Amino acid sequence: MARMKFICDAERCIECNGCVTACKAEHDVPWGVNRRRVVTLNDGVVGQERSISVACMHCSDAPCMAVCPVDCFYRTDDGVVLHDKDVCIGCGYCSYACPFGAPQFPTNGTFGLRGKMDKCTFCAGGPEANGSAAENEKYGRNRLAEGKLPVCAEMCSTKALLGGDGDIVADIFRTRVLSRGKGSEVWGWGTAYGKPTGGKPAEGSKA
Amino acid sequence: MKPGVIVALAVGIGTALMVSGCGEKPQTATQRKVDATAYSGSTVSGYSEKGWKPGDKTSWEGQMRERNKGQNEYGR
């Protein structure tokens, strides 16, 4: 069974924000909620500036699942971490636990009323019937059930963002690294999919 | 503006404000629902990618593999 993972190739990301825009449009994500965003490191430093596209990494040992007091998270057979918005109470614990800042909370009004958590679904919707109106309203489109991969990865113009079966995307990345002879660091990979390190940074990880 | 119109407007706005809370959907605590598998397909078949059969796990995995490999421009 495939284990769905994301890889962002910092050597290729050109900070176009196409992934962010595609995600917003595909799932009709409201203002103030960014399931995916592009982060630039060493901004303005010549030769050292790198950009990466960040969203929920669907971690192997997801900390959000561990801290949720109402157990609203679940993992699909394909390794996608999803949650049930009918169970979520919007407490925000997952937001503190997530190393990638993935959980988002819609706010409105002067006093910042906090809603139920929203995050990247790997374009796999939620627990409602696949492709139903209820699922679309709460979680957006379910592309996996349509035989497609996440829209952010599939429309990435430079193919910096790869999403899909971990073995295949890792193979694609490995071919690139061998071909160009540099840029083997995969940001967040160790944190999301590495073995538990007891709080220390994972080996070979940039995060 | 006539006084009657002003009163009607005030009543209208007041009523709208009073019933604005009625538009909120009921939120009842439930157990976490069981999710259908991705390979079971979507109820909106019009958008499904051709070349695989919904409900057939092997077929779906084959479709996913092809789609995955499509991200590799070295293989094109």
Descriptive overview:
By secondary structure, chain A is of the alpha+beta class. In chain A, 25% of the residues lie in helices and 14% in strands. Chain A is built from 7 helices and 8 strands; from the N terminus they run βαββαββαββααβαα. In chain A, the strands form 4 sheets. Chain A has a two-stranded antiparallel ribbon with strand order 1-8. The radius of gyration of chain A is 17 Å and the shape is globular. With 76 residues, chain B is mainly alpha-helical. Chain B has 2 helices and no strands. The radius of gyration of chain B is 27 Å and the shape is elongated. The chains are: A alpha+beta (207), B mainly alpha (76). Chains A and B meet through β8 and α6 of A and α2 of B.
In terms of DSSP E residues, the strand content of chain A is: 5-15%
Q: Which structural class best describes the helix and strand composition of chain A?
A: alpha+beta
| Number of beta-strand segments of chain B | 0
C-alpha-based Rg of chain B, rounded: 27 Å
- Gyration radius of chain A (Cα, Å) is 17 Å
- The helical percent of chain B reads 25-40%
* Net shape of chain B: elongated
Shape category of chain A: globular
How many helices of chain B does DSSP assign? 2
Topology of chain A as a string of helices (H) and strands (E): EHEEHEEHEEHHEHH
* Overall tally of structural domains of chain A: 1
Beta strand count of chain A: 8
What top-tier CATH class of chain A fits best? Alpha Beta
The stretches of 5 or more residues of chain B where confidence is low (pLDDT under 50) are: none
Largest interface summary: A-B, 41 and 36 residues
Give the averaged pLDDT of chain B, no decimals: 86
Question: What strand order characterises the main sheet of chain A?
Answer: 1-8
Biggest β-sheet strands, sense, barrel of chain B: none
- Which structural class do the helices and strands of chain B define? mainly alpha
